[in-house]
Amino acid sequence: MRQRIVVAVALTLVALGLGVAPAGAALNPSSLPRGTDSAVPYLSGRTLHVGNASYTLPDQSQAGAYRVGYSLVGLDGRGRWLVSAAMDLVAQPEEYYYTYGARARLFVLGSSGATMIYDERNDYGQLPEFRLNRTRSRVVLAYHQTDDDSFADTDVRVIDLDGHVVAQVRRLNQMLSVLDASGRRIMLGGGVPARVWTPGGTTRWITRKETSFADLHTGTLAVRATQHRWAMSTLAHPKRLRWKAWFQPVRVSPNGKRVVGVATTRNGRLTSTVQVRRLANGRVTNSYAFSSGGVDARTLAWQGSTAVVFQAGLVGSSASVLVRCVTGGRCVRASDPAPRTNDVYSLGDPLTFAFEPDSRIF
Predict the structure, then answer these.
(1) Complete domains list, the chain, with CATH
(2) Which residues have a Cβ under 8 Å from the Cβ of 44 and sit 6 or more positions away?
(3) What angle do CA 280, 358, 205 make, to 5 degrees?
(4) What angle do CA 220, 221, 224 make, to 5 degrees?
(5) CA dist., res. 262 & res. 245, Å (int)
(6) pLDDT at 18
(7) Among 108, 208, 112, CA closest to 161
């Protein structure tokens, strides 16, 4: 059987190069002083941590038949924590040459246990991605699909809080990720040109440039610029570049004034430096350089508007910890060392935070 092509739409993290403030010696995350636990809920493997409480999702690997990636989707409008399981068959019979058997499952997880509210198998699907919208009333599911013959597209579905599909668009001819979602607008992009989909309606292009980031709360959009840089523009006027630098933004602060991301070298290679910049002009306000395995930018989140939290250290090792850095202050460890996974078939190595309205409720 031909080897399956795994297409991962992930964050490409590139640093903004507008006069970076000088940083001190690189920090070793495992040597940082221990601070209080993170106030931002997060998922480690299959275990959800909310303050002093923790809840564990049952193993979804079905005795090793599936590899599983677990993610925290967010707190829905009913006050329930949603956790997803993106499942992929480990091995398939020869007669199912093009059948990949990806499954998308969505759970409510809390003190009363886990309840599955959505379950879909997609034989041509790659690992699916869930995203809670900003009103916390819908969950958006994106399925990347391929048939191993250079065919690639994306199906997007909108799911209500009871697990029913209420809108969908099929076969968008790019490998798209959900960058942000509100009640009536879903921003799609991620390494490709961006478009907006109105559920129940059509899609339209926002820009033909490669995109990496969009924030509906502030109306901002990051597009590819020259010399391996990213430029910050707006959804209303994507051709008007407000600033550009060697940096890829990840999340805007709850007050809409700052953006956190990770710096790269001038040829676009990842660094282990977390930067906080002013959203309006790109000026660096804080820079935190790390050693010993670097920073997993997929985990960057805000704790209020004055601190950022993220996973640092070599993911999958005992040196990997959750770090909290106060803007204008020091960094501390905000967790004990993270275990690799809760089960041997998990793909959920990084800690995950909810990619929804950030920490506005915390």
Answers:
(1) 29-333 (2.130.10.120)
(2) 335, 338, 339, 351
(3) 65
(4) 150
(5) 11
(6) 36
(7) 108
**Residues 152/158, Cβ–Cβ less than 8 Å:** no
Decide: helix, strand or coil at residue 30.
helix
Tokens of 148: 């191993």
Q: What is the pLDDT of residues 245-262, one digit of tens each?
A: 999 889 999 999 999 999
Rounded Cα distance between 185 and 348, Å, is 29
Tokens matching residue 103: 């499954």
Q: In what order do the strands lie in the sheet with 81-89?
A: 66-75, 81-89, 102-110, 113-122
Contacts of 155 (CB under 8 A, 6+ apart): 122, 125, 142, 143, 145, 168, 169, 170, 171, 172
Give the tens place of pLDDT for each residue, 141-195. Answer: 998 876 655 567 889 999 999 999 999 998 888 888 899 998 789 999 887 888 9
- Could you tell me the pTM of the whole model? 0.85
Q: What is the dihedral of CA 68, 74, 77, 80, to 10 degrees?
A: 60
pLDDT for 151 equals 64
Phi/psi at 31 (5° precision): -95, 0
